[in-house]
Amino acid sequence: MKQVVLAALILAGALAAQPLNPAKLLQPPTDSWPTYNGDYTGRRFSPLKQINQANVGTLNLAWTRRFTAGGGRGGGGAVQIKATPLEVNGILYFAAPDNAWAVDARSGRELWHYTWETTGGLHIGNRGFGMYGDWLYFETPDCYLVSLDAKTGKMRWNQQIADVKQEYFCGPAPMVIKNHIITGVGGDSLDVPGYLESRDPETGALQWRWNTTPRPGQPGAETWPSRQSMEHGGGMTWHAGTYDPELNLYYFGTGNPNPVYAPQSRIGDNLYTCSIVALNPDTGKLVWYYQVSPHDSHDFDNVETPVLIDGEFKGQPRKMLAQAARNGYFVLLDRTNGKNLLTAPFVEALNWSKGLDATGRPIPNPDMEAKPDGTLVSPTEGGAANWFAPAFSPLTGLFYTHASESYGMDWKTDLSKTPEGYGGRNQTIWIQNQLQAIDYKTGKVVWSHRYPNQGGNRSGLLSTAGGLLFGGDPTSNVFAMDPANGKILWHAGLQSSVGNGPITFELDGRQYVVVGAGDSLYAFTLPGH
Amino acid sequence: MIGRSLAVAVLCAASIAQAQLVSRPVPPADAVERGKKQFVIQCGSCHGADARGEDDGPDLVRSEIVLDDEQGSLIGPLLRQGRPGMSAFELSNAQIQDLAAFLRERTQAAINRNAYPLLNVLTGDAKAGAAFFNGAGRCNTCHSAIGDLAGIGSRVQPPQLQTRFLYPRGGRGGAPPKPTTAKVTPRTGPAVSGTLEFIDDFAVGLRDAEGYYRSFSRDAVKVEIQDPLSAHAQLLKQYTDKTMHDVLAYLVTLK
Questions:
Q1: What is the CATH number for B77?
Q2: How far is A456 from chain B (nearest CA, A)?
Q3: Does one domain contain both B109 and B214?
Q4: Partners of residue A175 on adjacent β-strands
Q5: Does B240 map to a domain?
Q6: Nearest-CB residue to A430 (from B5, B52, B233)
Q7: Domain range spanning residue B48?
Q8: Are residue B106 and residue B198 in the same domain, yes or no?
Q9: Interchain contact, A190 vs B10, CB within 8 Å
Q10: Judgement on whether residues B217 and B239 belong to the same structural domain of the protein
Q11: Which among A186, A418, A497 has the least Cβ separation from residue B3?
Q12: Tally of structural domains, chain B
């Protein structure tokens, strides 16, 4: 009998060791978490409900594991896990700058550890992998797209996607749509132009490139004063977006224009920076755009996840897209055409904007631009929201995001007609973190949880059909809340604060919740399961 | 980019500690100086003395060729051969390396935003600042120009004073701000007060008057916090840029 069970287990293991089924990318995540946000919608909503309001109080640590970086001039030292792990067929895959791991999701056991020999770049963080069949893709700080064999962790190939000597640095989780590996770039220091690229999953060859700023004569060029300004206008693409397979549109947010705090050389709206854009993933052609921070001068990268919501708005069923933007406004768009349905502030005391125009766009207040003697701006550079993952629950109709009320000082330091780089400085003066639950139909904050301490980390979030909202607080707790009202139902203290977004999946009839905090992963399950 | 929020003390402390920049070698200062003199004479008329470009020549600080160059590897051949719109130059290897060093220094100065020198932050009206301090701002409720703030204008330079008076963090040339205190009242038994050392949604820890550390589960107690800086946080919503600059101008007069 024992042998039969063993044989069955081996067979099950053999069956489980399959490549990622592309159909999984189109389904709500259950037994797998195969992409940065779990599925293409960006909702981070799981239909799993084994862990629910009635039993979450008994949630237990199943395993925890520390990871040590290795190799590379920029490697070594402590790991900060900002990546959302993928979970495919019982294996977790995640990355940190110059490092990547595969881990047994049932035990936390390390299966392989890949290290990349870096040539430079800002090692601020890596958001994780994209996966296609048996192949993994991640970006390095020195801007190579590296493909690994998921079975062994061996490198298949690498392709340079930007020049680190021009001050680009890279780290977003590549987005896999059909046979496209979509990669983005970062870098604000030296006014380099932003772009998004699609590469072939087999070879890494370039399929298309979309520039986030136009070139002379192209649509959008009228929003820049000169060739120089648009070719050095920034607009980075440092975060993964979302995808609607029916419309075949890839949605993502673009970064701030350059020079950052000295906008005198780029009079105009500066398209397509600080915008939500919709591209055809097969061609890289722009289908629509909506600019959330026109002519930004506060470093309000608009890369926050555009979350896809299907539901009712003013009595009509609609396909929508919602974003809690770094500039402090919640925007709701019709994702078929980019038309604005609603814009509303989700934190108090925004002072950079004079209000909204007829299309719902925030109007920047020129008086609040950085000045040589300092301008007191709310929110500060880190924003009311930022890259950390929001969540949406179709059960409550609420959009959840960690947020900050804050003030910062913006000084302009470069008054020339040709400023460079940042062109100014920022210092945060005061900050208060909170978790906001926003009714997508009204833009109103339905409930808000203010943390008792100022500042600290802001984690990503996860909502589930078990009536739970998971996240991490600014100290070092992972928690589960009632998503209807913010009541905390469970928590556990970790070694450091949650640095990524929690994920959940079911294996062998057991639901796991996994978070990354500092250099460790933690997996939680219910006792008896 | 959040990755470059290096001045953010509170927001990103954890992530910034991990942000390792693998930087390129800093060119020798004497080579930079020689290269600068040479650049001004030979290149400045078209590219500007600071290499930012003029009408006749492009910005070289963010030029792809300059950024990809290693000690003249790309600049050298280009200078010696010339290109459309630019004549060839006869230069020694040493001269080319000096020019490359100057341009590298210029790009690094543009990149390193935390070293950008602030300009004049002292533009306010000290008299109006005094009126705000003693009037609408109610600063004099807690502070005194001849008490705790006496000599602040001598002790702290204006750029540091500007951010410090808005929300003091202590440790920057003046007395640290008063500690936050907490009064914790259990369901039964007497209340305990002390200096707040830790609080989250689940626990509160304080140091009592006798120096003992006391912690409590939040669900078993009522917690009242006295934050001496709460008035500073409130004022942030009331300042205009004018009142903010006026108060700084006033504080600078407290020598």
A1: 1.10.760.10
A2: 6
A3: no
A4: A182
A5: yes
A6: B233
A7: 24-115
A8: no
A9: no
A10: no
A11: A186
A12: 3
Please check whether residues B36 and B140 belong to one and the same domain: no
Residue B173 belongs to a domain: no
Min Cα–Cα distance to chain B from A496, Å? 9
Q: How far apart are the two ends of chain A, measured CA to CA in Å?
A: 23
* Chain A environment of B52 (Cβ under 8 Å): 416, 418, 420
Scanning every residue of chain B, which has its alpha carbon at the shortest distance from the alpha carbon of A458? B11
Residue-range definition of the domain harbouring residue A525: 471-529
Q: Does B99 lie in the same domain as B210? A: no
**B247, containing H or E segment:** helix B241-252
* Cis before A272 (ω within 30): yes
Residue A167 lies inside a defined structural domain of this protein: yes
Map residue B112 onto helix, strand or coil.
Answer: coil
CB atoms under 10 Å from CB of A178, counted, come to 14
Q: Are residue B152 and residue B246 in the same domain, yes or no?
A: yes
Check: CB of residue A346 under 8 Å from CB of residue A324.
yes
Q: Which of A90, A102, A86 is nearest to A38 (CA)?
A: A86
Whether A477 and chain B come into contact, CB under 8 Å, resolves to: yes
**Residue in A with minimal Cα distance to B24:** A120
Q: What is the pLDDT along chain A (529 residues), one digit of tens a residue?
A: 444 444 444 444 444 457 898 888 888 899 999 999 999 999 999 999 999 999 999 999 999 999 998 865 444 567 999 999 999 999 999 999 999 999 999 999 999 999 999 999 999 999 999 999 999 999 999 999 999 999 999 999 999 999 999 999 999 999 999 999 999 999 999 999 999 999 999 999 999 999 999 999 999 999 999 999 999 999 999 999 999 999 999 999 999 999 999 999 999 999 999 999 999 999 999 999 999 999 999 999 999 999 999 999 999 999 999 999 999 999 999 999 999 999 999 999 899 999 999 999 999 999 999 999 999 999 999 999 999 999 999 999 999 999 999 999 999 999 999 899 999 999 999 999 999 999 999 999 999 999 998 878 899 999 999 999 999 999 999 999 999 999 999 999 999 999 999 999 999 999 999 999 999 999 999 998 7
Of B2, B19, B236, the CB nearest to A123: B19
Active-site annotation holds for A299: yes
| ipTM surpasses cut 0.95 | no
**Domain closes at, from A211, A245, A268:** A211
What residue type is B45 in one-letter code?
S
